[in-house]
Design goal:
- By secondary structure, the protein is an alpha/beta fold.
- It is built from 11 helices and 14 strands.
- It has a 6-stranded mixed β-sheet, sandwiched between helices.
- The longest helix has 15 residues.
- 31% of the residues are buried.
Amino acid sequence: MSLTVHQVSKKYEAHLAVDSVSFNIQPGEIVGFLGPNGAGKSTTLKMIAGFLPSDQGVITLNDCSIEKDPTAYKKSIGYLPESNPLYLDMYVKEYFHFLAEVHQLPNPNKRIQEVIGEVGLTIMQTKKMGELSKGYQQRVGIGAAILHQPALLLLDEPTSGLDPNQLIEIRQLIQSLSSKSMILFSTHILQEVTAICSRVLVLHQGQLVANEPIENLLKTSQNKVTVIFEQTIDAHLPELKALGFQIELVDKHTLVAEANDTTLLKNKLMSFALAKGLNIQSLQSQQASLEEIFKLLTH
């Protein structure tokens, strides 16, 4: 069981929105889908969901493609679009019964109560959806997406507009759903990615510029080391730069150096200080944040 996206492209007149994108998702994975506005994230999600045809490439879910068997393919997908379209005059439980009829679920009452409990809507099930807060409306949207127990769950900006408490609750809900579905979700909140994702995809100008486990992405990034010396070091700057690292002076006593391997960098700086008779007052390393990596990848 897996989702495979292979060399998929989509063009709107002269604009190439998605350009030969390829990736796969395995069962149990929560994959974050990142990119600036207009990068092609929503277009890619719509193609995977079967709402938009691709111009080229193949998308398969558990070896089934939308071209070969569109009904079977779409039955395996749960999709929460960014707009979260709801019938605001319907009651929560009534809405789930309506969806159960659409999906032709066997024993719908049992499944509806399971989902209402799973997404935390028990006390809200008799209310109209228009009376719910944004957080509870997002819960309804997620419940609608998982009602038919899909193999793949697509979430487009599921935490957008939520307050901090609601955000934490929806994050925990998404994590709990990964035991039953593969999850691909688009977000602008990078903290969400580091909190719940095992892997990240970064799209920029329609192209996939990163497809890495988060820990790998952080390891391969340029990390910073800040060193404060007792003596002035501006005269030593040419020799310091000759060590082979990116080094800049903050003031006459302080430098900031960047490297992938901070252990090697620190060893070289300490050896240099020892050879030159310089005393180090402070030496601190700082790992690059996901925000910095995202900015680097999408510039």
